Amino acid sequence: MENTKVGNYRWVICALLFFATTINYIDRQVIGLLKPTLEVEFNWTEVDYGYIVMVFAAMYALGYVLFGTFIDKVGTKVGYAVSVSVWSIAAMLHAVARSTVGFGFARGLLGLAEAGNFPAGVKAVAEWFPKKERALATGIFNSGTSIGAVAAPIIVPLILGAYGWYEAFWITGALGFVWLIFWWIFYEIPSKQKRLKQPEFEYIHSDADAGEEASPVKLKWGQLLRLKQTWVFVIGKVLTDPIWWFFLFWLPSYFADAFALDLTKPSLQLAVVYAATTFGSIGGGYLSSHFIKKGWPVLKARKTTLLIVAIAVTPIFLVQYAGNIWEVVVLISIATAAHQAWSANIFTIVSDMFPKKAVSTVVGIGGMSGSIASTLFPIFVGTLLAYYKDLGNITAGYNILFIICGCAYFLAWAIIQLLTRRMKPIEL
């Protein structure tokens, strides 16, 4: 009842973040779905594709640094708009690429600009939601990664079959410019938003950091890197981001290699896997918010949820024993859903522990670190799969990768637990 009385404009903001994240993931997913087509067109090997993914990841890491700091300086509205504009242009540039190097260039620019999505999104949540709702709001907008990944396996094959791979990049790349119109009309920080009523403004600022607005400020990295709170987020990203990227960029080819799935047609199996991540993202955000509303300390609620998530990933060990494609779909769906629950909470920890004026910068530092790890992981993945492909048993390579996936979250949670025994929110 409290929320209906105070108003719901903040959920309009959450919807904008959700749709931006959906478009973000549609644009990055396209190349994975077109991989079999492009491999024939450009004679790519598994290692070639691994390097293209690596370029995206490397520039994504750099983009986190640039956009994390840039968004804290110029504000969420302008920073997010710049990010979406550049990544939409980059997505369409894939259509004019005529070589592996050309794809690498377009992919790098896409990664650079797409990195602005989460620093901007997490900062917007910190600006528009009290702490008890932030994990849920983050879970909802983060579920756009799932919806984007569900939509892409349906949309891209249809465009590919009707028009060709060029048009798949042109059409999906143009979506960001449609979103920009709504963003520019409806977004302002709460103190400047005329559509926001006073009761909701007071509810948004009902935490201890009431009155603080995310005004443009200059923050020093050295100061942030000396804080354990920063390293909690860094560890949480470094050990788990590469896993999500593996699911995103190699899952379509895994099903094609292991079960002869035809990626030129809409894939129900991939749609189910990525749809499950929606429930994980929202459910993970809801669970920690539920604990907080029951009176749990904020950090305890987040860490308990992260532990539950780490346990939920482990059934992926059983993929190698599955007898058919739908058993594999179920096991991988649980793991990908758990990752998104992890993501919703690890992002929210930043806004729990840092003032709003530092949120984008800290997200940029952690996101950069996770992307550096994700830059290196595709080299390992591509080399491993190429080795087992030469042996005529590529699924054995995938099984090793699934075991790594199952271990990563427990390791990350254990380190976070050690870092946060007596941790409190900081003031800069």
TrEMBL record:
Major facilitator superfamily (MFS) profile domain segment(s): 13-424
Annotated transmembrane regions: 7-26, 49-71, 141-163, 169-187, 230-251, 271-292, 304-322, 328-350, 362-388, 400-419
Name of this protein: ACS family hexuronate transporter-like MFS transporter
GO CC annotations, alphabetized: membrane
This protein's UniProt keywords: Membrane, Transmembrane, Transmembrane helix
Membrane topology type: Multi-pass membrane protein
One of the Pfam families matching this protein, by short name: MFS_1
GO MF, any single term: hexuronate transmembrane transporter activity
